[in-house]
Amino acid sequence: xxxxxxxxxxxxxxxxxxxxxxxxxxxxxxxxxxxxxxxxxxxxxxxxxxxxxxxxxxxxxxxxxxxxxxxxxxxxxxxxx
Length: 81
Ligand SMILES: [Zn+2]
Known about the structure:
81 residues; 41% helix
């Protein structure tokens, strides 16, 4: 999908009531003039652009999430204050 098509989709989606979208189907975005991929993905329903995170960053955010969960579990019971 080109950036222009994505912009068109976004406009149509907004005019149709701008409903919440779960972005179930994503297409790789590319530039029409160069046919080069931009590295982003466009939702096929609403045209919203998703920036793809590098794999390392995804791994780190997963680690951070599990770490935060551990902290939440280790927190002392606050019922007896
Ligand atoms: Zn969407």
